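Possible regression after last week's pipeline update?

I re-ran a chain I had predicted before the update to compare outputs. Posting the input and the new output here so someone can diff against the archived version. Not blocking, just want to make sure nothing changed silently.
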Amino acid sequence: MKKIVILTGAGISAESGIKTFRDAGGLWEGHDVMEVASPMGWERNKSLVLDFYNKRRNQLLEVLPNKAHAELVRLENHFQVSIITQNVDDLHERAGSKNVIHLHGELLKVRSTSHPNLIYDWKTALNLGDVCEHKSQLRPHIVWFGEEVPMLDKAIGITSDADILIIVGTSMQVYPAASLIHFAKSNIPIYFIDPKPTIQENLHSNLKIISENASVGVVKVVNELIGLLY
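New output (post-update):
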């Protein structure tokens, strides 16, 4: 069974109503990203950071997976599928995807500030005074600017073993996630799905660009790949 690796970004979640990470002005929901997505911002104003992610968490619980998420699940009936996402939402899992790696953390989890491996599922508000069993404050389980990406090595290994690579809804401008395409084998088919593609077809010998929104482009690619089997 062929191995398909799918790299997803904000564009696949946007169609469910999740706002993209940064707007044209570099703001995230009206905030300078360094205020709410950096260790310095956390140390400066923990209450602001907690409130910011509490609102994002509430928003996530009000939306549903979309057609693109569902189609990637359908792909699992025919291929060995791994999803590597830059998104912090759980929409892939809610749609039914079984093998999802979150490069940038997960919004519905929190972790201890003193013991980073102590991670808890969390769907309610996180407040000052909410602590782990070691009495350390809990923080959002999000990879902030300036922090290591702990799942990167695993993602590199999975990408380097892929027979087919699909990139959905990401500009491939955010590193280190954008570097993953360079670990794919040189001869494999790569599908790039984005309404405003920022990638050149000559970057890779077998690159195919689909200039569509995720829900349209993913259907096209999934139908094509399943069709090749029969």
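Follow-up from reviewer: compared with the archived run. The chain has two domains: 1-18+65-104+148-230, 20-62+107-142. Marking as no regression found.
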